[in-house]
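task queued by scheduler; priority normal; single chain, no ligands, no partner chains; default sampling; output format set to structure tokens
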Amino acid sequence: MIWSSALILMLGTLVVLMMLGLPVAFAFIGVDLLGAAIFLGGKAGLDQMVRNTFAALSSFTLAPIPLFLLMGEILFHTGVAFQAISTVDRLIARVPGRLSIVSIVGGTIFSSLSGSTIANTAVLGSALLPDMLRRGYHPSIAMGPIMATGSIAMLIPPSALAVLLGSLAGISIAKLLIAGIVPGIIMSIVFLAYIIGRCSFNPSLAPVDEAHLGLSARERWIPFLIYVVPLFGIFLIVVGSILAGWATPTESAALGSVAAVIAAVAYRKFTWAGFLRSIMETAKISVMILFIIGASVTFAQILAFSGATDGLLALIKDFGADRMVLVTAMITVLLFLGCFVDQVSMIMITLPFFIPLAQTVGVDLLWFGVLILVSMEISFTTPPFGLLIYVMKGVAPQSITLRQVYMAALPFIALEIIVLGLLIGFPAIATWLPAIMR
């Protein structure tokens, strides 16, 4: 079988199974069974599939994924995150779109403590959205910042998907985690500038909010020093230990999870019910991710054995395209896929082609990894199937339509694409901080 036929067979079967509504992990397993029978020698291929799955899931480099997720789930289910966001709400006053600003600042803070974009969006939506709508905020200026800031957890460590990407692409996980910090902060600043500018030109989008105007400086800052500043200690434990070279990502993730438990106990928010729920939610998400990883390893191997990977790479090289053109084309493919499939599936489908191609044309894999992360961040809110769109629809009042959620996301998708363009044009934005790591 020629390589193009093998490629069409494998990818076509995967797409058909997903369109039939089969869970992504089982769609990959179905394609693996077909590919093993055709390209890997039948029974011998099935044996190899089992070995691949065991080897993939026993990799120590994947250990930070559940630990980073656990950090965010503990802070979410114990209520520590809600307390911190409420404190940020008291601190910010006298700015256009005040509650939208609170959602961006609070979401960025929680992103530095949570490896889960879902938890980040759920916390912000539950804590702020009802109050924003009750005060007369336009749905677009209320929901848009929450979804956009929720997805920043993809970039700012701890990021479970950064760990997954680094592990599968052969990129230093520690450097990839650190490389997302500056782009994540830039993203937040761009969101803040947009909210302030838009609400200044059109005040009706966010009516003047007089809440907390009568509070003294002491009443504003003391709660912040008590309930927010200590939480930065968790971020320093995770990121500082990696940046200083004192701990591996797995060790720093374990320390961060312990620190999250200590914070919940210190604030008297810890309950066994909340802790067990955090573990259950972490297990659900982790098992889903690990299932897809186990199945996709054989998928990539079948593509290689069938000649599809080498054939496609040779075809692209024959075109002689410029390196930046190839990078832009790969990012465009990711943005397109992000409209229809989840982020883990995006990684698994594209990495077998993208990483060898990037290496062939001399692309810095660390920089390319950050571009992939930003592309996946954008895909969290791209219609029609962006995951955070449906998280937002779930926490919003029933009067909010799906179309309103779509429209709220669009301006922030445009802003994220602008930042993505900056990263493509100026790679040092992503690479300078990892360069100073010990």
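post-processing summary
- Residues 3-435 form one domain.
- The mean pLDDT is 83.
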